[in-house]
Predict the structure.
Amino acid sequence: MPPSRTVVIAGAGIGGLTAALALAAKGFRVLIIETAGRLEEIGAGLQLSPNATRILIGLGLHARLSARALVPEAISIMSARHGGEICRLPLGEAAALRAGAPYWVMHRGGLQAALLEQVRNHPDIELRLGTAVEDATSHADGVTVSLGGGTDRAKTAWALIGADGVWSTLRTRLFPDTSPRFSGLIAWRGTVETTLLPHDMTAQHVRLWMGPHAHLVSYPISGGRQINIVAVVPDTWNQQGWSAPGDAADIKHRFARARWSGPARMLIDAVAADGWRKWALFTIPPMAAWHRDAMALLGDAAHAMLPFAAQGAGMAIEDAAVLAQCLGEAANENAAGAAAALARYTGLRRARVARVQALAERNGRISHLVGPAALARDLVIKAIGPQRMLARQDWIYNWRP
C-alpha cells in the first residue's frame, strides 16, 4: 500500500485504539494522536455485549481480554422498593453460544490496557502521547493535520478520524453548531471489595436496581475481587470530566431519603468515604452527518449517549469496524474516494446508533418511574419473562459488521 495511505486518529480511548487495530488489519498505516501525556485508567466497570466482543475477538484480542474479563451468569432486574428480584435474564455460556460471542464485564482500564498492548505491538501503528491536533485542512491529496509539539508538526494523511470524546475538538471544527447537551443526570461510581459484602451480594450477576428518579447498577470486576457500583441520580452539577471527587454523605443521603431497600443501601454504604467519583452525563444530539471531506467522527465524538443500554463502548467499537471496512474498500482510491468511504460509513451507522440512543433514553425513563407507574412496570417485566426480555436485545447483540 502506498505511504500516502495513512490514517490519523485523534484520541486514544477505546474507540480510537479499536479503530487503529481495525484499520491496520486492512493494511493502513495509522498514527494515533493523544493529548494526554500518559494513558491512565479512567472509569471503573464496563459491560461488553456480544456485538462488541465479537469485533474485539476478531482483532486478535481474545487471549488478552478473556484473562481480564468475567462472564456474568445473569442480569438481575431488582426492585429498589422491596429489594427483591423482578426478573433474571440468563447470560453465561448459554447466551454466548446463542449470540456467537461472550458477554463480558471488566474494568475499563483493563480493556484500554489490552488494546494498548496490541497497538504497541503492531508495526503499522504509531502512538504519540502529549500531542494535540491543532488544525486540519482538506485538499486534493487528503488532509494535512497540524500537530502541536515535536519536530514533525504537519502530517499529510488520507483521512482524519476524530475519536476524541464528547468534548471533541474535531467535531467543534467540523460542526460548530453541535455541542454536548447536559442530561440533568449525574453518575456516581465506586468499587467495593467483595470480602466486605455478604456472599449473596457477590454473585457473578449484573444487578440493575430501579428506583424513584434514580437507579443503581452493580457487577463484579477485577477477577471477581471487586464489585463495581454506578448510581445515577438527577442533579444540576454539570462540570466536564470523568472523575470528580464525590461526597459520600451526599449519595448516601439521596438513597436513604428515597427509602431504597436495605440491600441497595448496603452497597452504597460499603464504598469507602473517599472512594466515590462522579461525572455529569452529556449526550450529543443526532447529527445529519459525521463526516466532511476526508474527516469523520467516531464514538462519543459523534454520538455520546446515556449509559442506560450499556452500549456506549459497544457503539464505538462497532463504529471502528464499519469505518475500517468502508475505508478498506476504497483503499486504492484518491482523497475523493476516502470522502466517499466516510460518507458510506456515516450512512451505515447513523440509523442504528440513533436507535440505540433512543433505547438508552427510554430505559432511563422506565428505570426512574415512581408510584403506580413503577409498580405497573414491575408487573409487565414479570409478565414478559426472562427469555422474551433477553430476546428484546437480539437486534443489538446479534449485529455483525
